[in-house]
Specification:
It contains five helices and eight strands; from the N terminus they run E-E-E-E-H-E-H-H-E-H-E-E-H. By secondary structure, it is an alpha/beta fold.
């Protein structure tokens, strides 16, 4: 198992190329989706969730190969409707890219441990609601944006259950 301290600190702007990663000086990893900050370390997310008494939204994505993941990010997570309620949760992004230059080998190893625990079926995209203590509360898998409606209602309903 990879410890939280062995993961190097990184910040990613999810609106830009994921490989435009830059090191930060903190021990907490953050990913920005729009104006939101997504952590990439479950232990840090649980610390923040405990401190703020919030649930954790865990978003499993394949940032460089999963078209539905990219569409869900654009159609739902990068919208004012989601952003308006995002501060009621701690946001955690677990990426499973195919390209090796997107995240560090340590981060990939760490992400696999989180996938093994919360995404055993390895379905992408998957959104899991987790309690501040790490207990799974609910999950929703998949997204189809290949129709003209880009129906995000299932994801909205899922997230809104925990507001």
């Amino acid at each position: 198992m990879v410890s939280a301290m062995s993961i190097s600190a990184q910040q990613v702007n999810f609106n830009e190329q994921v490989d435009d990663m830059e090191e930060t000086s903190s021990t907490e990893e953050t990913v920005s989706v729009s104006k939101l900050h997504w952590l990439t370390n479950l232990e840090e997310a649980k610390k923040q969730a405990n401190k703020e008494n919030k649930n954790i939204i865990l978003f499993f994505t394949g940032s460089d190969w999963c078209a539905p993941c990219i569409a869900l990010k654009d159609d739902y997570f990068n919208t004012p409707a989601f952003e308006d309620n995002a501060d009621k949760f701690v946001l955690l992004l677990i990426d499973y890219p195919r390209r090796k230059d997107i995240i560090s080998p340590e981060q990939m190893k760490y992400n696999r441990t989180i996938i093994d625990k919360y995404n055993k079926s390895k379905s992408f995209p998957k959104v899991v609601m987790v309690s501040k203590g790490g207990r799974e509360l609910g999950k929703i898998s998949g997204y189809s944006s290949f129709n003209s409606y880009k129906d995000i209602s299932h994801h909205e309903k899922f997230i809104n259950k925990y507001l």
